[in-house]
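User: Please predict the structure of the protein below. I'd like the answer in structure-token form so I can feed it into my own downstream comparison script.

Assistant: Understood. Taking the following sequence of 119 residues as input:
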Amino acid sequence: MSDPTPIAITLHRESRVLEISFDDGSRFELSCEYLRVYSPSAEVRGHGPGQETLPLNKEDVTITAVDPVGHYGIKPTFSDGHDTGIYTWKLLYDLGRHYNTLWQEYLGKVAAADRSRKA
């Protein structure tokens, strides 16, 4: 069985949401902030275990461009200049499917660091 493939991707600039519909009927609305803090880039994830960073002050970030990467993903450019993460279809699907858990995990890390996600 193959991974779900997007059939539609829409960037809603005003609401700062990337809407993705997959061929299995799933549809997700992912905020730009959520996508930015869960970037698959080395800047966010590091080059190995324990090297992850905690992105902060991304509440107002937007996506300024979305470029296709082959037939397997996209590379968004964020308004803070970040443009190095390649979001595969599988990653986008997983981010959508596990949104509630991942978002609560992020908020917990922010609280544990005694920080705010806002500028």
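That's the full token string. DSSP finds four helices and six strands in the chain.
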